[in-house]
Amino acid sequence: MIVYGRNAVREALRGPRAVARVWALARAAREPWLEAATVTVCGTAAELASLCGSEDHQGVCADVAEFSYADAPALLDRPDPLIVALDQVQDPQNLGAIARTAECAGATGLVIGERRSAEVTAAVCKASAGAVEHLPVARVRNLSDFLGEAKAQGCWCHGAAADAPTAPHAVDLTGSAVLVLGSEGKGLRPRVVASCDTLIALPLLGRIESLNVGAAAAALLYEAVRQRAPAAGT
Amino acid sequence: MIVYGRNAVREALRGPRAVARVWALARAAREPWLEAATVTVCGTAAELASLCGSEDHQGVCADVAEFSYADAPALLDRPDPLIVALDQVQDPQNLGAIARTAECAGATGLVIGERRSAEVTAAVCKASAGAVEHLPVARVRNLSDFLGEAKAQGCWCHGAAADAPTAPHAVDLTGSAVLVLGSEGKGLRPRVVASCDTLIALPLLGRIESLNVGAAAAALLYEAVRQRAPAAGT
User: Which of A97, A184, B50, B223 is most buried by a 10 A CB count?
Assistant: First the structure.
């Protein structure tokens, strides 16, 4: 697949995927982080845009191996995993943004459903600033079944539901935890809700009805980071 | 100005701005939240797109009064204000996303600079899901001077700087507080850094170098919400 954008290409070069070829505009080709790569200089931005099928290339794109999805059960085998599970989040920008935040927050991985979900496309690589090169992303046939397996392995599954009475700081996000977020507008499906141990909600203190799912993920992940930090509570 | 998008138009109708006229495609015009409005039905999506200058209208747009910026000193007069100040955040999507999260988190307002900053355009209204109709947004000539005034009034100014050694939960975000965030890539300008009381950083536990500014704002704002909640720490 062709990935594009500076961070997306840069992290592909730093990550495990094989990179067959890099194209860049003359100016981008001189950047230090491209020094180790063999770069084909591209004459015009339009030529680059036709290569990657997007105007959003920031002067660089690369032909990389297809994205390798992680094995979901293997994520559960890690010590004290912190996993983000997304229920039918269809917007590539949101999926990419959440992947980026999850990688920054040190999450073990991201789990998405096979159907009605954005998958890891070049647009998602770009939106994630290349985070998907380092963050395991697993696809599962059925998200509720995955949450069942997670619970069987001792994970607590915390579903984000706008009308839940419990704030994230009032629950224990240390140990093995899955944070489950749904699509904006629709939220979590009933079967997914039923598969969660607890439902939590970020307080909504204004007049707007909902947070963006990416903002909610950031607030929840960094609440987990706070609780899991060695000096938490001090 | 013409605002477009379902949430942007809906919140404009609920907020203080005068709405002169609403246009919608037939299907959108029948939605319950448009019941109280006088709606001109628009024949085609293309007609609507030419009215609002964007394809991103979701079937509805409105002619509303120009956006009224708030008075920055008045924000400081509120009891225990929680203010978000942005240093040269130029991306309308980021400004909109931060406004949305700030409104949800019950922030007192948002302060932006007059130069090299995104301002409240229709794209920002859309990206904020209409939050800018309810959240005071002030423009100041000089952000450092504003922070100086804030400190003179007893506010603590917390600057987000990726290399700061202090986590947000280790500082006191109760009382009067300004959270200062810079643009991605560039961060805070030196004079803005010098105007902050403390520098804080969300831990980066992966390989990616930085959080998106909208994700950072969400994590910081909800850490403030946690600390300011009546039952915080229990």
Answer: A97
